[in-house]
Amino acid sequence: MSKKENQNKKNEQLDQFRVQDEGKALTTNQGLKMAEDEFSLKADERGPTLLEDFHMREKITHFDHERIPERVVHARGFAAHGDFELYESLAPYTKAKFLNDTSKKTPVFVRFSTVAGSRGSMELARDVRGFATKFYTEEGNYDLVGNNIPVFFIQDGIKFPDLIHAVKPEPHNEIPQAQSAHDTFWDFVANNQETAHMIMWHMSDRAIPRSFRMMEGFGVNTFRFVNDKGEAFFVKFHWKPVLGVHSTIWDEAVKINGADPDFHRRDLYEAIENGQYPEFELGLQIIKEEDEFNFDFDILDATKIWPEEDVPVKIVGKMTLNRNVDNYFAETEQVAFHPGHVVPGIDFTNDPLLQGRLFSYTDTQLIRLGGPNFHELPINRPLCPFHNNQRDGYGRQTINSSKVAYHKNSLAKNTPEPVSEAEGGYSHYQEKVEGRKVRARSESFKDHFSQAILFWNSMSEVEKEHIINAFSFELGKCKEVSVREQVLEMFSNVSHDLVSAIAGNLGLPVPDKKEINYTKSSPAVSQANTVKRPATRKVGIIAADGFPAELNNVIAELKGANIVPEVISDHQGMVKGVDGTEITADHTFMTAESVLFDAILIVSQEGNTSLFSKEAPEFVKEAYTHYKPIGALKEGASVLKDLDISGQDGVVVDNSEKFIEAVAEARFWNRDGK
């Protein structure tokens, strides 16, 4: 190939990165058209510039990093691609196009994560789970960056470094990894009582989910919708899993971490590969501006929920995750989320936690991804074009052909230029702001215990027992008795029954009983009230050569209910039935543990004493102690009889229909004994 041919080929490779800015509308790096490029966002014409001015910060930050010099949460995550479909137009509330047009599918990329641990940490740690969604809309990228718990530990973004410093491994010995069960975290809790409500969620089963596919997602902060009439509404975002909200129990979670520390990512990956696409419905809680102060809590306080019984969740669309990533690093590791990546019709509120987040995310991406051009990485690029006067810096891919890189200008006829709001330019909602500049917090943020009480009041008896056990474990790991005592005193403001039980487990005095008159509850926050479906549940079938012919029919019925059966035997490969038919053994007892399955079905026959008298009983017994469904086919019932669990709740013999119903129920908390 000649030198000229080589050059032509190189030019063709570079053409995809060549951008002609002249004559184009001005946008941010996310593809969002801007209505103004001369004035920063201020509290008033002569007031201070506001931290939420994402355009100014992007513009200046990019400039600050345009020269390449000479040559730290949510570390462990897993992600997938998908689509979002809208059920009904939300034009009365927002002018965001992707929330107006029901005929379009919006591509999405979702990253699930833990918070406290490092990248190689265990996935079943007791922790908050990140639930971040990037919508690739025609107006630019919109990021809904949330968690699987609807509230947060703190009320103001300035305290976020303190929280993370406290929950991370202690600096003198780098212990413990991915755990909150240590002195510095609980010392932070006891001395920052705004954490009370979040800690109740954190000590509940919500912090050890069964699957990314079976946990809710929440935007946490209060945002604002703005419609094309300029009318504004307060809004909170919810993702509701179609499979319901389900969790592990603590003993099970600990054992899963040892048996398969990649349990959650494997579960998500395999579900998508098997065509069992995870689905989440988008729900919105909407409050009119005039109703802002009509509640017994401040709607801008991120440590508070809007109880669904007070503000119903409106289901407006569905997200389906239908494609795994091709390359973990290029996609999952390099994706960059930011709550400041918005589109027209979605705006911010004065939620002080949100205000802090609007700064920190861009600042984080700069060091994590090496500079201001993280938006040019393929996973972060918007689908719509973007044009502005930002240049150079680490990782620049765009080849700007214009010599003009400033605003205003005459050489490029003052382009790229801002466009009006009517033409799609982003314009901030003109909220009236007045008052002194102060470092303070509203009096309405000072109630730290009412909703912690509400959460406790909403729990089933089993959930309460789990919360008591979680507190007892976590505080039992604290070395300083004074920390334990401070936490007990703090949560005596929530429930005397709660702290009495914990104190008994820790061998500490019970704090004095406080008068608690708050009786409100919210049934929606209890997992006891969630959807229960058998679909995608994993059933471990214990079988060996000589299995009864009926097993093939049972496996077909399980698959018909969209259940995933996996066979465990004394060897892998083909297992032959009594009628000569064969099934594949996926596991032996060396490669499988009962905690990796949602239910167990034992299929036995006379004569195979080794498999069914030594290994299978322990396997079944552990599943039983975790309250899971247990089934038996033919002589397999003898194992249940030997374990003395026949006839107990969720124990089914020779009835595939009832066994499938038991798999849907998932747990049987009323069993006698453990």
TrEMBL record:
The keyword Metal-binding applies. Keywords: Heme, Hydrogen peroxide, Iron, Metal-binding, Oxidoreductase, Peroxidase. One of its GO terms (cellular component) is cytosol. There is a cross-link at H338-Y361 (3'-histidyl-3-tyrosine (His-Tyr)). Its cofactor is heme. It catalyses: 2 H2O2 = O2 + 2 H2O. Transmembrane segments: none annotated. Signal peptide: none annotated. The active site is at H74, N147. Heme binds at R71, R111, F160, R357, Y361, R368. Pfam families: Catalase, Catalase-rel, Catalase_C. GO terms for molecular function: catalase activity; heme binding; metal ion binding. It comes from the Bacteria. Residues 1-23 are annotated as: Disordered. PANTHER family: CATALASE, CATALASE-B. Belongs to the catalase family. HPII subfamily. This is Catalase.
